[in-house]
Amino acid sequence: MARKATVTKEMILDSAFALMKEEGFEQVTARKLAAKAGCSTQPIFRLYENMEQLIGDVYEMAGKDFDEFYAAYPKNDTTPFINLGMAYIRFAATRQNVFRLLFMSSFRGDRSMYDLLNRSTGAVGMEITKAKEAGVQRPTDLFMQMWIFIHGAACMSLTGDFDLSEDETLRLLKNAYHSFC
């Protein structure tokens, strides 16, 4: 009778996600993953055709991680795009490798930034609606202008070039919003 498989897809995926968070998605190799999961490489390739397929599943986990982070992030400001911007910048600063995979890698495929941010929370759509209700004439254009600023700040946090406090970040985002309106 064949031995029952003890390594599950969930175990491999959880180990791959943990490895990605620690070292970056480029470092998720079959050997490193096997060591992290406490198995040989055989179960990995029994469960996944290749590493790219596995990273695709890790990417989906990263998306859920952002969705959960955003849902839990305090939404204390009524100015459109500010809460989303604050959460996004904080996510980049605190979950650097997850941010890189999710928003700065080729695993994004043909998904736009809008699609990634709007995937389950509908955050961008809600912010655009809030801007429209606040009297903004072209809220989608305003989103793009704000997003260039927000994404730039988030990327700067990865290199240590954006080390502003929460209050300073909030002030800059509000100034950008009012300048772009």
Topology readout:
Elements: H1 9-23, H2 30-37, H3 42-47, H4 51-72, H5 82-94, H6 96-104, H7 113-118, H8 123-133, H9 139-159, H10 166-180
Q: How would you portray this structure in words?
A:
The chain is 70% helix and 0% strand. It is an all-alpha fold and 181 residues long. The chain folds into two domains: 1-48, Arc Repressor Mutant, subunit A (Orthogonal Bundle); 55-180, Tetracycline Repressor, domain 2. It starts with 8 loop residues before the first helix and ends with a helix. The model has no long low-confidence stretch (mean pLDDT 92).
Features:
Arc Repressor Mutant, subunit A; 2 domains; 0% strand; elongated
Biggest sheet layout: none
End-to-end separation in angstroms reads 70 Å
Count of individual helical segments? 10
Helix-strand pattern: HHHHHHHHHH
Count of DSSP strands: 0
CATH topology of the largest domain: Tetracycline Repressor, domain 2
Unreliable parts: none
What structural class results from the helix and strand content? Answer: mainly alpha
Rg, Cα atoms, Å = 19 Å
Total domain modules:
2
CATH class of the largest domain: Mainly Alpha
Shape: elongated
